[in-house]
Amino acid sequence: MQITIAPYLLSTYKLIQCAFPNGIETQDYLPLLALLYDEMSDRNLAEIVSHCTGRHYNLVLNDVYRVVTTDVPKAEAIDKVKQRLLVCGYEKWLKETE
């Protein structure tokens, strides 16, 4: 199945794919959402993570809301995900999103 990624989300898709080449593991899923939350709109974040995980967009969007309200991941878990993204150009990506 061919996945079509909007051009403005392509760099985010590549960043996530680089950091998680075998897919986003359960323990990294919510921390990833929490880390990227401040840098992206809720809908764009849900859209790109939906593409990366195969989860339905609406479920991911609910998870986005959950990580900033009722189920905030621990700082250590978020930092672990950040370290994976840093190796794949996270700082460059941050500059693109400014």
From TrEMBL:
Gene3D superfamilies: DUF3349, helical bundle
Top-level taxon of the source organism: Bacteria
InterPro entries: DUF3349, DUF3349_helical
Protein name per Swiss-Prot or TrEMBL: DUF3349 domain-containing protein
Taxonomic lineage from the root: Bacteria, Bacillati, Cyanobacteriota, Cyanophyceae, Nostocales
